[in-house]
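Design a sequence for this backbone.
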């Protein structure tokens, strides 16, 4: 049997990395700060190609860009260095520096578990107006590209994606990768989930910015893993490609030169590294080995529609264009930062409705345009004007929330979010849950990757929508089974993928 089809591997990984009260409180894992990995991949031997730092905003309102980012923009644009610089800055660049007694902490455009920044971006492109064809790495630390290979290697990605239609015409393709150790240092084997969480928040930003710039972009998750990793010179035991994003549409791709080995020096991340075999096992089990497997993998899953609301429905009331704030997508990304504390104040139903309407489709090779999402949004409402506090499920087609259970659930929300104050104090907590069985049935183990990624992209959009609305947000981790139990019987059998808390930011508690 094809490895990807043996979905026991996913259940084993998923069960084995669930958080529970018991697993968290009995964990012996200590953070070894002496051995903390660098949050950057650095190639000391390669010349930096500085990216232009003029990053004028597009002027496109964030909420408009988010809403439109569900569909692939139409256009023929050929990106140049200036446009690439904007895309890279607003998806994975450094947007904030905070000084502390031991130095400086650098924060990025997209949120990331533990601020460990294990996701890197690579670029594979044809000759662009001001950049020669090649394979490049984006260095966030000095905002520069470095050329790993010279020449037009896009044909290798066309081959690896079995002629995926957007890849076959794209003048430039971005690739997200994760170096596991940079995240597993803290999160151990659960870091594999974070590969998709943390590339999802980057992709939410990227898709909003490409939409604002009318640059076609699509998320491609079906590819022969080994071929993409080899092109980028990754050691797949440590670092792997996760998703491709072809950009632009007007540049037919020819055959790539031969892809020889790359042996480029990179700065050691830490004194030593620890392998988590569970990560390598699930990654290998969800890998595709040849073009025919990729071609068969691509497509949409048929996930049963949500049953029509049986509980009391509450129609949503998103702000209209006139009422909605107009801050540009770039301004919103620049001021985004995870709320460290929420005030226990209500948000309005209009704010919650507008934030929820940013959840939508993704132009991707694992979906059909307009098709059903793999994840459903379940919500704990703590304080939203016009809604009784309680638990809800979101019906996007009806633009309504269905009340599942009325009640004050701040304590429960805090417990589900690993006993943190943030979800208890938030105005609303949005949990993305998926029914993994049909997803794995259709996509094999690789379905786990796309279910996590889809949830994270929509979680990233919620983050941005909250900041566009003048609110705060934070991603949160959770006790898996307790989340499903809390929303059951409606959520029976589903698995929690991602959690975002929304509310009014408050100053941190003193001390
Ligand atoms: C998926 C996800 C889960 C997160 N979980 C938590 C959490 O459980 N507790 C917390 O305080 N912050 C959490 N965060 C917030 C990160 O710590 C934060 O994104 C990171 O420190 C970078 O800071 P910034 O978002 O302000 O740029 C999470 C972020 C993401 C994306």
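Sequence:
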């Amino acid at each position: 049997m094809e490895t990807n089809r043996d979905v026991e591997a996913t259940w084993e990984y998923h069960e084995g990395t669930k958080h529970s009260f018991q697993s968290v409180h009995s964990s012996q894992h200590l953070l070894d700060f002496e051995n903390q990995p660098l949050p950057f991949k650095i190639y000391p031997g390669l010349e930096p190609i500085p990216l232009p730092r003029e990053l004028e905003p597009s002027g496109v309102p964030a909420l408009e860009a988010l809403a439109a980012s569900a569909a692939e923009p139409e256009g023929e644009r050929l990106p140049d260095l200036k446009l690439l610089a904007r895309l890279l800055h607003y998806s994975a660049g450094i947007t904030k520096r905070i000084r502390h007694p031991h130095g400086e902490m650098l924060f990025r455009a997209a949120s990331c578990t533990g601020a460990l920044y294990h996701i890197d971006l690579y670029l594979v492109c044809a000759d662009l107006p001001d950049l020669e064809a090649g394979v490049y790495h984006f260095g966030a630390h000095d905002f520069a590209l470095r050329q790993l290979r010279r020449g037009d290697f896009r044909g290798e990605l066309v081959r690896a994606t079995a002629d995926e239609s957007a890849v076959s015409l794209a003048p430039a393709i971005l690739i997200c990768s994760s170096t596991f150790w940079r995240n597993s240092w803290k999160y151990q084997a659960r870091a594999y989930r974070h590969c998709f969480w943390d590339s999802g928040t980057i992709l939410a930003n990227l898709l909003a910015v490409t939409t604002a710039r009318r640059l076609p972009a699509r998320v491609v998750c079906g590819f022969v893993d080994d071929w993409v990793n080899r092109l980028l010179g990754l050691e797949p035991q440590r670092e792997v490609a996760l998703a491709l994003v072809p950009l632009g549409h007007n540049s037919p791709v020819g055959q790539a030169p031969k892809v020889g080995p790359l042996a480029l020096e990179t700065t050691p991340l830490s004194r030593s590294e620890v392998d988590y075999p569970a990560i390598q096992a699930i990654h290998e089990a969800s890998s595709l080995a040849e073009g025919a497997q990729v071609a068969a993998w691509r497509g949409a899953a048929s996930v049963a529609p949500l049953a029509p609301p049986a509980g009391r429905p509450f129609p949503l009331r998103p702000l209209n264009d006139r009422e909605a704030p107009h801050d540009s997508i770039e301004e919103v990304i620049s001021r985004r930062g995870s709320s460290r504390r929420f005030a226990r104040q209500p948000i309005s139903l209009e704010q919650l409705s507008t934030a929820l309407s940013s959840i939508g489709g993704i132009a991707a090779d694992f979906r059909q345009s307009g098709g059903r999402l793999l994840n459903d949004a379940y919500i704990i409402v703590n304080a939203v004007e016009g809604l009784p506090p309680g638990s809800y499920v979101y019906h996007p087609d009806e633009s309504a929330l269905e009340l599942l259970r009325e009640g004050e659930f701040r304590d429960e929300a805090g417990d589900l979010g690993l006993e943190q104050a943030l979800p208890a104090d938030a105005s609303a907590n949005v949990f993305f849950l998926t029914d993994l069985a049909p997803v794995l049935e259709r996509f094999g183990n690789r379905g786990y990757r796309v279910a996590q990624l889809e949830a994270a992209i929509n979680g990233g959009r919620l983050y941005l929508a909250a900041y566009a609305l003048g609110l705060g947000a934070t991603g949160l981790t959770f006790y898996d089974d307790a989340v499903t139990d809390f929303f059951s019987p409606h959520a029976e059998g589903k698995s929690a993928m991602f959690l975002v808390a929304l509310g009014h930011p408050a100053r941190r508690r003193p001390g």
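Residues 313-505 form a domain with the NADH Oxidase fold (CATH 3.40.109.10).
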